[in-house]
Amino acid sequence: MRIRSARDIVERFRSNWQGYVREYRVFLILTVLAALADAASTVYFMLRAGPDAEGHPAIRLVSAVFGPILGPILGKLCQFAVVVALTVYLRRWAAYIFVAVIVLYGWAAWYNVWGYEIYYPRLLDWLDHLS
User: Are the CB atoms for 59 and 42 separated by under 8 Å?
Assistant: First the structure.
């Protein structure tokens, strides 16, 4: 489908929205749960290390402006809105996008709580040996 105007985009969203929530409700629930875990773990991480330690530039910026609690929550809400918009627009690819997002959010939640302590010191050691 070629996009000729903004009306084409709106029409695609309108037609793809029909039955979207019903068809992808399990993916949406899993995405919300993974997003909540990632947001909560990011708040936990930022309260210990501060917004400057955040790797995602948009989340770091929002957290620098709104603080280590509200920033990650607002950032994750924006990310979730983008995931929904993207999966509605690219509905044929929605399941693949949802799986990737759920895995990444889950991994990020794990990393914020436990992975940082495992990987970060080792990464510094590896970089020290390489230099």
Answer: yes
